[in-house]
Amino acid sequence: MLIIGDDPTGPGGIGSVIRNIHEMTDHKASHVASYRPDASPQQKAVLFCQAAYVLLTGQPPERWLTHVHLSQRGSFVREGVLLWLAKLKGAACIVTIHGSSSIDFLASNSIFGRGVLAAADDIYCLGPLQAEQIAKVLDRAVDVLPNFVPIPPSPPLGISGHQFVFAGAVGARKGADVLAQAWEKVVAHSPASRLLVVGRDAGMAGVFIGLEGCTVLGECTHDTVIEIFRQSRAIILPSRAEGLPMALLEAGSYGRGSIATPVGETPALLADTGILVAVGDQKGLVNAIIEFLDDDVAVRFGQAAYAKVCTEFSFEQGRNIYQGLYGAYIKLADIEDKS
User: How far apart are CA 334 and CA 63, in angstroms?
Assistant: First the structure.
């Protein structure tokens, strides 16, 4: 089988999802990297051309399943072309739709979206809200296939210190400007508070420069980010748009609660595992961060987050789902070959 999508060694949620799929499944899967968010325009063009070349010139096996990961806007052109190439080469094709604004994109470009996704035998989204809304736009069935994360072998560390973390592209979509404004008031209330800002600059890293108690780390390795989660009190993600944020799941796997906004699938994820703040609500964000400075609050949300991720989003659940999903397609291909 073949997986098409973001480079799993690069930044971004889709790459993390693909990396995790490889770790979860026993099926021997090849991966074709079609995109990398931190690449230059020239490098992105090369990645796409290389992916198209593999599909055009490769000799497909008799039983061929292709899993394409796409999001919105340019991805529907880029991965959409690759999806159709795989389909025309005779592959069974399934698609997972990621993306913070995929619903709005498809609603505004429904004819184009339906045309691209006509090549997909089955379509999956990250959560029930996204699946329901996209199914209405496409007028076809859409199933749920959430993100999954590994559960660390040792129990989460206890809560200590006053450190918080923002993890993601540091830009307007993730609410970096709102957090920067709120943080000044948090430090005025609790001077010992610390904020680590982790992620590539998406136009707003500068708003954190010079803020008291704030350190901008930029892009970090995945292992470094995980260690930061372990040492932090909570993750803060005041996004304006999301799908199902990997950062919240990974933080939860280390027993850390979240402060986030009710966008995408986040409200269902944060039920009893964190505090929801309205988009752009600077005062509400300040109050939520200050509330998390209470050890009892941080521990309660952290324990709930750990339990939820272990129960619903762990590799164990993901392995069973993906093995069943991929195995069903391969078994179906076997039957068709013999008929």
Answer: 7
Whether the domain at 2-148+314-338 and the domain at 163-312 fall into the same CATH topology: yes
Please determine, looking at this structure, whether the domain spanning 2-148+314-338 carries the CATH number 3.40.50.970: no
Under DSSP, the state recorded for 76 is H
- Asked if 182 and 286 count as a contact pair (C-beta separation under 8 A), the reply is yes
How far is residue 227's CA from residue 223's CA, in Å, rounded to a whole number? Answer: 6
**Spatial distance between the Cα atoms of 145 and 127, rounded to a whole number of angstroms:** 7
Tokens 């909570």 belong to 234
Q: Which helix (DSSP H) or strand (DSSP E) does residue 4 occupy?
A: strand 2-6
CATH class as words, domain 163-312: alpha beta
Segments making up each domain of the chain, as ranges: 2-148+314-338, 163-312
Please, what sign has the CA dihedral across residues 313, 316, 321, 323? Answer: positive
d(CA 310, CA 304): 10
CB 140 within 8 A of CB 113: no
Tens place of pLDDT per residue across the chain (339 aa): 889 999 998 888 898 899 888 888 765 678 899 999 989 999 999 999 999 999 998 766 655 889 999 999 999 999 999 999 999 998 999 999 998 889 999 999 999 999 999 999 999 999 999 999 999 999 999 999 999 999 998 877 788 889 999 999 999 999 999 999 999 999 999 999 999 999 999 999 999 999 999 999 999 998 999 999 999 999 999 999 998 899 999 999 999 999 999 999 999 888 889 999 999 999 999 999 999 999 999 999 999 999 999 999 999 999 999 888 888 876 655 544 444
